[in-house]
C-alpha cells in the first residue's frame, strides 16, 4: 500500500516551518518529513533545508534527482526522489510545498497527495513578516495581498490549520487531522 504525500501550503510567515518541525519531532514514527533542496544559504530563514549552489541544483535537475522542483522568490527549490521511494514503500511523507506548483504535484501524485493548508489572520501575518525583517513594508503588503488571493483558492478537501494563535494549538489541530488520515486501515 502506498503512503500519502502531505503537501503543506500557506503564505510566507504562516508558520509552515514551525508546524513541520513539530511533526518531525513528535510524529516521526508515522510521517517522514522531507528536506527541501534550496539555492540559498543554510542559515537563511527558519527552514531546515539543504543548501545548494545554482550549479549543484542544475546538476541534480539534469540527473533527475528531484521528484519535484520549481523556482520562487529568486531561488530554486527541489524535493528529492527519495520521497517517491518512501511513498511507494508505504510511508507517509510531509513536504513544504509550493502553491504555484500545486497543480503539477496533483497531476503527479493524484489521490496520494493531501494538501495541508496553513492560514493565519492578516494582522498576525503582518506582524510576523515585519518582525522577521526580511522584506520592506511595501514587500510585506504585497505578500499580504498574495496571501489573501491564495486563501480564496484553497483546494477542496484540504486539511485546514489556523495558525493565528499559539503554535501548540495549531499543532494540535494538525495532529488531530493527521491521526485520522494515517491510522486508516
UniProtKB/TrEMBL annotation:
Any GO CC annotation of this UniProt entry: cytosol
One GO BP annotation of this record: 5-phosphoribose 1-diphosphate biosynthetic process
Catalytic activity: alpha-D-ribose 1,5-bisphosphate + ATP = 5-phospho-alpha-D-ribose 1-diphosphate + ADP
Protein EC: 2.7.4.23
Keywords: ATP-binding, Kinase, Nucleotide-binding, Transferase
PANTHER family (UniProt xref): GUANYLATE KINASE-RELATED (PTHR23117), RIBOSE 1,5-BISPHOSPHATE PHOSPHOKINASE PHNN (PTHR23117:SF8)
Domain Guanylate kinase-like stretches: 3-179
Protein name as it appears in the record: Ribose 1,5-bisphosphate phosphokinase PhnN
Top class in the EC scheme: transferase
Role played: Catalyzes the phosphorylation of ribose 1,5-bisphosphate to 5-phospho-D-ribosyl alpha-1-diphosphate (PRPP).
Similarity remark: Belongs to the ribose 1,5-bisphosphokinase family.
A Pfam match: Guanylate_kin
Molecular function in Gene Ontology: ATP binding; ribose 1,5-bisphosphate phosphokinase activity
Pathway: Metabolic intermediate biosynthesis; 5-phospho-alpha-D-ribose 1-diphosphate biosynthesis; 5-phospho-alpha-D-ribose 1-diphosphate from D-ribose 5-phosphate (route II): step 3/3
UniProt organism field: Veronia pacifica
